[in-house]
Design a protein that fits this description.
Radius of gyration: 18 Å
Strand content: 25-35%
CATH topology: Rossmann fold
Oligomer: single chain
CATH architecture: 3-Layer(aba) Sandwich
Pfam families: ABC_tran
InterPro entries: AAA+_ATPase (IPR003593), ABC_transporter-like_ATP-bd (IPR003439), ABC_transporter-like_CS (IPR017871), MacB-like_ATP-bd (IPR017911), P-loop_NTPase (IPR027417)
Order of helices and strands: EEEHEEHEHHHEHEHEE
Family: Belongs to the ABC transporter superfamily.
CATH class: Alpha Beta
GO molecular function, one term: ATP binding
Keywords: ATP-binding, Cell membrane, Membrane, Nucleotide-binding, Transport
Distance between the termini: 22 Å
Number of helices: 7
Length: 231
């Protein structure tokens, strides 16, 4: 029987910033696996290495040493353009600050990843509307971010992240700028996308209450994984 290949596998990952006495070791020998269908919450104090690790998983940064395999393919050996293609085809990103274009409608914001992929206009429009419908915002498709609440803006950002049907959704403090009620709504949506749509989710959060929505909680401390629970 063929052994299943993990979606993400980090093997003995180190990340150093700077040289000599000024060097800072952000990651010190990380071994970390994300299976397809996982929902992982990554936690830890500031400077623990959690965001550095997720930046490497998201192909936004490269390790100083060690191996990163995405579906068995070594990412650390990829060129800048190949990593950009990996992000575009297989990864979706959600940030604390929403990162929506201010003068652009919700629909046009969601269409952006498809525009970069060269998807024809009619198909773009159809897929973007489907994604907005999936997050419960189809009625607001012609509204700009200024006309939406913070929770609605984050839903638009989630629709933008899932419109290209990524294998992995990377969420960096997605509830950090929302009140508790809106935060819970967003976490329920992410959980639903994971369970109903089969999207693998990796979430960075400081909030224990939000981490409970995940199937697995990984704690970082001082550049190392301190604990890995659940799964």
């Amino acid at each position: 029987m063929t052994e299943k290949i993990p979606l993400v596998q980090l093997i003995d990952i180190h990340k150093r910033y700077g040289q000599g006495e000024a060097a800072f070791f952000a990651l010190q020998g990380i071994d970390f696996v994300i299976e397809e269908g996982d929902f992982v919450a990554v936690m830890g104090p500031s400077g623990s290495g959690k965001s550095t690790c997720m930046n490497i998983v998201g192909a936004l940064d490269t390790p100083t040493s060690g191996q990163y395999l995405f579906k068995g393919v070594p990412v650390e050996k990829m060129t800048h353009d190949e990593r950009a293609l990996l992000r575009r085809k297989y990864l979706g990103f959600i940030f604390q600050g929403f990162n929506l274009l201010a003068r652009t409608t919700a629909l046009e914001n969601v269409e952006l990843p498809l525009l970069y992929r060269g998807v024809p206009r009619e198909e773009r429009h159809k897929l973007a509307r489907q994604a907005l419908d999936r997050v419960g915002l189809l009625r607001w498709e012609h509204h700009t971010p200024a006309e939406l609440s913070g929770g609605q803006q984050q839903r638009v950002a989630i629709a933008r992240a899932i419109v290209s049907k990524p294998l992995l959704l990377l969420a960096d403090e997605p509830t950090g700028s929302l009140d508790t009620k809106r935060s819970i709504e967003i976490m329920r949506l992410l959980k639903d996308l994971n369970e109903q749509d089969g999207i693998t989710v990796s979430l960075v959060t400081h909030e224990p209450e939000m981490a409970t929505f995940a199937k697995r909680i990984v704690h970082f401390r001082d550049g190392r994984i301190e604990s890995d629970q659940g799964g």
